[in-house]
Design a protein that fits this description.
Two copies of one chain form a homodimer. Helices cover 43% and strands 25% of the residues of chain A. Chain A is an alpha+beta fold. The first copy, chain A, folds into two domains: 130 residues, Jelly Rolls (Sandwich); 78 residues, Winged helix-like DNA-binding domain superfamily/Winged helix DNA-binding domain (Arc Repressor Mutant, subunit A), CATH 1.10.10.10. In chain A, the strands form three sheets. In chain A, strands 1-8-3-6 form a four-stranded antiparallel beta sheet. A four-stranded antiparallel beta sheet of chain A has the order 2-7-4-5. In chain A, β10 and β11 form a beta hairpin. In chain A, α3 crosses α4, α5 packs across α6 and α5 crosses α8. The N and C termini of chain A lie far apart (48 Å). At the A-B interface, α2, α3 and α4 of A face α2, α3 and α4 of B. The structure holds a DNA duplex (30 and 30 nucleotides).
Chain lengths: 226, 226
DNA sequence: TTTTCAATGTGATGTATATCACATTTGTTG
DNA sequence: CAACAAATGTGATATACATCACATTGAAAA
């Protein structure tokens, strides 16, 4: 890939901001940028993993085939690292990542990543912080998945898209009903019923995949209490 | 605390094995060992966290008050770190840890931990690996919690105690029925019914808290499929 | 040793949601 | 533009398990 791409990248991670000019140049030599479209698989569960994946821009679903069904672990929005646990914790992908929109991905050779950890303590520290924050997020999301009832989980998902992904109350859901079920642990029929109920109760505007949050307070209540 | 305690500790972490004599001596100055008995709270959810907790020996439940009820996230067996995510990812404990048996805990000042990360890349690398492995473990446990039915989750818990905690098919459960419910996401009545069913079906021996795995193959099947 | 309290087991009932079936709508392909 | 496939909505039914109530057993405290 073109030299200096990492040097002039405007979507660098917080950790990468701690890399010097030399390090960024070395990174450019061990980093490949690839574009994906909706539905494209970025990496596949059970495949070998020897790269660190960095989403520069776009939206990705991180998903896993569980004992009974597909589960979406997270909707990840660039810029962000994916799959660090699966590359450092094991050598095999424990989950898959699939693009939901046009997505720009950097594949980083793990060896240079390890070099940076070994030689740049600010970089290593930011990676540790990033891993820790991710784990806390997953803990809370898991607890909410386990303990809330379906309407609470669906409400939580709708608010997540509004406040964390699109930053607007009116957006187009980048998921089918089936996928929304995979994200929230419901059947697609139950998702339909809940969305229709929310619409009838005036909590959201609903037109196919177009969602509008009309009563964020009430939706927040439902989300909080299940 | 007595100098050199870390130097001659036989329960050091993999990461700590990479510390030199000087570093271990400095660690001794920023490390306090405390003993806990069953029921003692090691750290509390929502309290400030400025220490890294290292369980030298003993059994601990990591638990969180969720939207509806207590949830046990993990039964942790020494030697192991606890709460690194909660100390690096935030400054507040996101969950609690409570001793289930006599437990030996080291409280390590976070500043020296950060120093080691900054100056000892092998140490930092092992901390990253440890965080990654933990996250993968939690992912799978979460998926299993979400997708398996109650008998599968209870079977999984019984096998976890047999194979990961006690390393024997005959052991005393260190949890009440209520706590086993917190670990598996069931009510205590359902846990009782399932244990009684397993006993009636000859899968386990059951005498109060004394458990004996009689049919590991079948239990493994139930655990796997829910 | 007795009393008290916590833990546990069991039966009955209610609830949330999956599953199944099928019709309708929407998006994609030829 | 029509045909086809995927996505979606809705009704009916089944199931897993929570909840409630209460009796019994075991552990702890007086």
């Amino acid at each position: 890939m073109a030299f200096e791409i990492c040097k002039f990248c405007t979507k660098r991670s917080i950790a990468a901001e701690h890399l010097g000019t030399d390090e960024l140049e070395r990174l450019s030599h061990s980093c490949v940028e690839v574009f994906f479209e909706r539905g494209d698989i970025i990496f596949k569960q059970n495949a070998l993993s020897s790269n660190i994946i960095y989403i520069r821009d776009g939206l990705v679903k991180v998903h896993i085939a569980g004992p009974e069904r597909e589960q979406i672990l997270k909707i990840a929005k660039g810029p962000t690292y994916l799959g660090i646990p699966t590359t450092f914790g094991d050598k095999v992908n424990h989950y898959s990542a699939t693009a939901l929109t046009h997505t720009e991905v950097c594949f980083i050779d793990i060896r240079i990543f390890k070099d940076f950890i070994a030689t740049n303590s600010d970089f290593a520290y930011e990676i540790i912080v990033d891993l820790c924050k991710n784990e806390l997020y997953h803990f809370h999301r898991c607890i909410n998945q386990l303990q809330k009832q379906s309407p609470g989980r669906v409400a939580e998902a709708l608010l997540y898209f509004a406040n964390e992904i699109f930053n607007t109350k009116k957006y187009t859901l980048p998921l089918t009903r089936n996928e929304l079920g995979d994200l929230t642990g419901c059947s697609r029929e139950n998702v339909s019923r809940i969305l229709t109920d929310f619409h009838k109760e005036g909590l959201i505007g609903l037109n196919g995949k177009k969602i509008e949050i009309l009563n964020e307070t009430m939706l927040g209540q439902i989300s909080k209490n299940g």
